[in-house]
Write a structure and sequence with these properties.
The protein has 328 residues and is α+β, with helices and mostly antiparallel strands. It has three domains: 135 residues, no CATH class; 99 residues, DNA Binding (I), subunit A, CATH 1.10.30; 79 residues, no CATH class. Helices cover 27% and strands 22% of the residues. A five-stranded antiparallel beta sheet has the order 11-10-9-8-12, with no helix packed on it. A four-stranded mixed beta sheet has the order 4-1-15-14. 28% of the residues are buried. The C terminus is likely disordered.
């Protein structure tokens, strides 16, 4: 529900500044039955020009879009069998990984234990990661239509598209891999993304904890409840700018603040900064903001400016599962 409500909340915010006319939602679907049992019947939906895109996209996310054997990035990657098919290895997703062409050829028909006998640390990591549960896939499956149904409350036409179709559009248009560019490729009419366009990352970070005081290992309170939420006008997670004139922390520090009643705050990673040196930049509202792309999570993009100077009324939403509801 946090994922759904965050996307719905930002749809409301965008609708106040952007004349939205329709919304395209990417409903990524991972067939967990097919991942565990590749010979299951009724797989006609895999046929056609999008065949294989869904499982391959899942493997790319699972293995961090780099070769599992050598760690190479930004090179063509291939689907590789951990236990080779020539030795009765299966096509189930727990037996698949992503590797570069050189490592794939070097491994050949050998088992991964034989291929990485000289590197036991990497072998242990690969075997552990191969058996990771499908919790991310389950989270995406659970929210893919709930997000779309929540966005329908805006009264705009909402269409649904698969992750394989998004990837197909991105490859066809020649865009590099980036989540905000993937969002621009959702739907039947992908947006043209200028090179100078930069993504604005908005990540849901929450509004602190409901716990009033800290506990010891036995479950008894070891601190007293906070008497005041704000100290000298500042609240934990406010974005502040601190200009310290002298001392070991002299300089300018910008970051989220952690307040203390004694007036000595932590700004970002720098501790013991007096409140007198702090200036408020933005009140804590449950979100963190940054320029540039973001690696994972649910994301949405505002398409580029149209020729007449106005923003086109199309909003694309991508439902990613790695983090708790970041938005692009």
């Amino acid at each position: 529900m946090s994922r759904v409500q965050n996307v719905r909340h930002w749809a409301d915010r965008l609708s106040m500044v952007v004349p939205l006319s329709r919304i395209a939602v990417e409903t990524v679907r991972f067939d967990t039955q097919l991942m565990e049992n590749p010979i299951i019947s009724g797989v006609e939906y895999q046929q056609g020009e999008l065949a294989g895109y869904e499982v391959r996209e899942y493997l790319l996310e699972k293995w961090g879009r780099k070769c599992a054997y050598c760690g190479a990035e930004n090179v063509p990657l291939e689907v590789e069998h951990i236990h080779p098919k020539s030795r009765r290895g299966s096509n189930r997703v727990s037996n698949l990984l992503i590797s570069c062409h050189a490592c794939n050829q070097a491994k050949g028909s050998r088992d991964v234990r034989e291929f990485l006998a000289h590197d036991p640390a990497r072998l242990k990591r690969i075997l552990a990661q191969a058996r990771q549960p499908l919790s991310d896939a389950a989270a995406v499956n659970a929210t893919r239509y709930a997000i779309g149904n929540a966005l329908k409350e805006l009264g705009l036409p909402v269409t649904f598209w698969s992750g394989g179709r998004t990837k197909y559009n991105r490859i066809r248009l020649g865009y590099p891999k980036d989540h905000w560019l993937d969002a621009a490729c959702v739907g039947d009419n992908p947006s043209q993304a200028p090179e100078k366009l930069q993504a604005w990352s908005i990540k849901a970070v929450g509004r602190g904890r409901r716990q009033m005081c800290s506990m010891d290992k036995y479950g008894f309170p070891r601190t007293r409840p906070k008497a005041h939420k704000r100290v000298h006008g500042f609240q934990t997670d406010d974005l502040v700018k601190a200009i310290v004139p002298t001392g070991k922390h002299a300089g300018t520090h910008i970051g989220r603040v952690a307040v203390r009643t004694r007036g000595s705050f932590r700004v970002g990673q720098v501790d013991d900064i007096s409140w007198r040196y702090c200036a408020l930049v933005q009140r804590a509202n449950g979100y963190d903001y940054a320029n540039g792309g973001h690696k994972a999570g649910q994301c949405a993009s505002i398409p580029p400016t149209s020729k007449d100077g106005g923003l086109p009324g199309v909003w694309s939403v991508r439902n990613r599962a790695r983090e708790n509801a970041p938005l692009l």
